[in-house]
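Hallway conversation turned thread

IA: we were arguing at lunch whether anyone had actually written out Rhomboid family protein end to end. Turns out nobody had. So, for the record, here is the sequence (266 residues) and right after it the structure tokens. Reply here if something looks off.
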Amino acid sequence: MGGLNITPIVRNLLIMNVAVFLAAALLNRVELFSEWFGLRAFISPFFSPYQIFTYMFMHGGWQHLIFNMMGLIFLGPLLETVWGQQRFLFFFIFTGIGAGLVDAAANSYELSAVLADGRIFLQDPTPDNYVQFLGKHYPDGIFNQEQFIASFEKDPHNQTYIRETTNFVRKFDNMIANRVSVGASGAIFGLMTALGLLFPNTELMLLFLPIPIKAKYFVLLSAAFAVFMIMRRDSSDNVAHFAHLGGMLFAWIIISFWNKQRTKFW
């Protein structure tokens, strides 16, 4: 693999990502930068088209930045050497934008469901409708508000309970509409997929695995894990698994297209 022999485009991408994060951190505006340039659902009132590009250069913290940049350092140089600078840069941006498109589409689907169910409750704010809303979109809320829900069920016409639940649903709707995705991980998963497609039998040594694993198996396991986490629907999980799958999907699309063109591939 490319190791620490950092190639020009990888170096420039590193500089850009670190510089943006440092600027935000020094100005104490990390969250504000994410709000400005992070990616939201297409149907969110806070969505702007430029976010599909800018989100991949935003990071929510040092750990997030370091993890993604380590992936870029260890995966990028080999692929840049194989493809050349222009094709590598195109691939990185293409998979990053593709990951953003998939993530924004998935979030739009979720947001539309949240808003629709929220309207049902707001039109008829009963305990049953409130529990159904929580069960679909915030399962942890049923446990966290168990005592409150019991009181609401005993007194369903209590205006205080109705006001509290309607305020909660409105705030939840706004939170989902304002949810942002940030980070280069979609593009990094695209690089990982490229490695698995081009060099499937390359053995990787990972920090969290004591044994080597072939690149093709690591790609499959990563995709399976992303699908599992999506299906698990853990409300405390703030990882953009759809973006990871999107980066992998768009990597497969462009590499398949390049292969069929039978032009210079590497």
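OS: looked through it. The chain has a mean pLDDT of 90.
IA: good, adding that to the notes. The chain has two domains: 29-108+180-261, 126-177.
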